[in-house]
Amino acid sequence: MTNDVRNALAALATIAEPWQPHRLASINDYDLKVVKLEGEFVWHSHPETDELFLVLSGELTIQLRDRDVVLGPNDVFVIPKGVEHCPKADGPVQALLFEPQGTVNTGDVGGDRTQQVRELTA
User: Fold this and answer.
1) 62: which strand partners?
2) H/E element holding 10?
3) 114: pLDDT strictly greater than 70
4) Count of Cβ atoms closer than 10 Å to residue 104 Cβ
5) How does the average pLDDT of the chain come out, rounded?
6) Which residues share a beta bridge with 52?
7) Beta 60-64 vs 68-71: how paired, if at all?
8) Diameter over CA atoms, the chain
9) Antiparallel, parallel or unpaired: β 51-57 and 118-119
10) Which of 47, 62, 92, 114 is deepest in the core (most CB within 10 A)?
11) Where are the domains of the chain?
């Protein structure tokens, strides 16, 4: 990771597929990731860490077991550690995630949607 200025929207333009987080920057032991979201993900939790979503464009629904949280552009929501959730986007969404390095996107459930964080090529 370089110390260069990074542009989140330019980085998002290089991502071809949804649900594949890419590291934009790191600070201390945390990663700031850019990701495109579309469709429904998997129900999961992160037993050891909170997870922050910042929607840049589109509308994202974070399904929780007791309610749905709807986020639009510039909305931030923190999912507390251990809380089961399932992100869902009926249309294209661009977002930033802030979470500890090494956090797996599918949390405690794994499966074929699990992606290791990728490095941006541009």
Assistant:
1) 69, 87
2) helix 8-13
3) no
4) 16
5) 88
6) 78, 98
7) antiparallel
8) 42
9) unpaired
10) 62
11) 8-119
Rounded Cα distance, 67 and 90, in Å: 17
The whole-number average pLDDT for the span 66-89 is 97
Q: What's the pLDDT score for residue 119?
A: 65
What mean pLDDT comes out for the span 79-84? 95
Number of Cβ within 10 Å of residue 49's Cβ equals 17
CB 24 within 8 A of CB 15: no
Amino acid at 36: K
3-state helix, strand, coil in the chain (%, to 5): 5, 45, 50
Amino acid letter at 12?
L
Question: Residue 107: pLDDT above 60?
Answer: no
Rg of the chain, C-alpha, whole Å: 13
Give the residue among 65, 104, 59, 100 at the shortest CA–CA distance from 77: 59
Token pair 């987080």 is at which residue?
Answer: 21
User: Which tokens belong to 45?
Assistant: 């939790």
